[in-house]
Design brief:
The chain is an alpha+beta fold. The chain has two domains: about 20-120, Phosphorylase Kinase, domain 1; about 125-300, Transferase(Phosphotransferase) domain 1 (Transferase(Phosphotransferase), domain 1). It is about 35% helix and about 20% strand. The chain has seven helices and 13 strands. It has helices at about 75-95, 125-135, 140-160, 215-230, 250-255, 260-270, 280-310, and strands spanning about 20, 25-30, 35-45, 50-55, 60-65, 70, 105-110, 115-120, 125, 160, 170-175, 175-180, 185. Strands 1-2-3-4-8-7 form a six-stranded antiparallel sheet, covered by helices on one side. A three-stranded antiparallel sheet has the order 9-11-12. A two-stranded antiparallel sheet has the order 5-6. Helix 3 (about 140-160) runs antiparallel to helix 7 (about 280-310). The longest helix has 28 residues, at about 280-310. The chain is globular. About 35% of the residues are buried.
Length: about 300
């Protein structure tokens, strides 16, 4: 259902569209991705703001003449149904994973020849924008953002899933980091082929193959890439540009305040070969904490001797 007398643009759902008899579309929220469109909506029963993700792979589908229904470009209805089912797996995974750091999934359903996922609306900025707005020192960053994020990822791994798309834009910061977008998540304990999901700078080498072995150390790579971004304000060099000659620049090249130990920790966990990375979140967190404590100890000693001889 849609409110009439407004221009149809045949890409985004018209404002006022009602989905599943209760979700009133207010506006598009962010620029569309290759696979979906994200809307701000209101649950007309409770009055609560929600996020609605609509499966809309622009290369495969078009809007019908009514501006709402989705139709396949190449008359392959069976293939579209399969892709819609795959899209809705994200919601099923999010409902299975019990963690306060994972975005709450309220609902999911098929309609208009496509699929929709309804999520809780979080008032906050993604981590990329949050870093621009807030100048967090290392201590605040670790305590307020990164350690809670590691706890969330650890809980996901404990339930035999890996996220596979950890990056600053997939983390919303409210009073804590909230992990979103589980469209790439898989059970890493299965032997099934895994779809290629690539985000340059944040995806490890093993994501370039559907048959490669993937596991917690794959998410560790992405977490190290987030650390790299925090210190440099840019992602690491994409792995495909590192294969022949690994010219990944050290963190200290951009930020001279980063200790050699912390730099080595980040670079090691950005290794192309997963065996050189930390193999679990617990190991990763412990080694990160040790490097932080070394930095803290040096600062304390420096301050002590400075006061001693002043």
């Amino acid at each position: 259902m849609v409110i009439h007398n407004q221009k149809v643009d045949y890409l985004y759902l018209p404002k006022g569209t009602i989905l599943n008899d209760k979700y009133l579309v207010k506006d598009k929220l962010v620029p569309k991705s290759n696979l979906s469109i994200v809307y701000l909506a209101v649950n007309s029963i409770t009055g609560e703001k929600v996020i609605v993700k609509e499966f809309f792979p622009q290369e495969l589908v078009l809007r019908d003449l009514d501006g709402i229904k989705v139709v396949p470009k190449y008359s392959n209805q069976k293939s579209l149904k399969k892709e819609v089912s795959f899209f809705l797996q994200e919601a099923k995974i999010m409902k299975q994973i019990k963690s306060p750091g994972v975005a709450c999934c309220y609902d999911y359903f098929k309609a208009n020849n496509t699929g929709y996922i309804v999520l809780k609306y979080y008032q906050g900025a993604n981590l990329k924008d949050y870093f621009k707005q807030q100048q967090l020192d290392l201590r605040k960053f670790l305590l307020q953002v990164f350690y809670p994020l590691l706890k969330t990822v650890a809980s996901i791994h404990e339930q035999n899933y890996i996220h596979r798309d950890l990056k600053p834009t997939n983390i919303i910061y409210t009073d804590k980091p909230i992990l979103i977008d589980f469209g790439s998540a898989v059970q890493y304990t299965t032997t099934e082929n895994k779809r290629r999901v690539l985000t340059p700078g944040y995806s490890p080498l093993e994501f370039h193959s559907e048959e490669s072995k993937q596991g917690p150390s794959s998410d560790v790579y992405s977490l190290a890439a987030i650390l790299y971004y925090y210190f440099t304000f840019q992602p690491p060099l994409a792995v495909k540009e590192r294969i022949i000659e690994d010219s990944l620049l050290p963190v200290s090249e951009f930020n001279p305040w980063v200790s050699q130990g912390l730099n080595d920790f980040i670079i090691r966990n950005l290794s192309l070969e997963s065996k050189y990375r930390d193999q679990s979140i617990a190991e990763f967190r412990l080694n990160l904490r040790l490097e932080y404590l070394k930095i803290k100890s040096k600062k304390i000693l420096k301050s002590f001797f400075s006061n001693l001889f002043s």
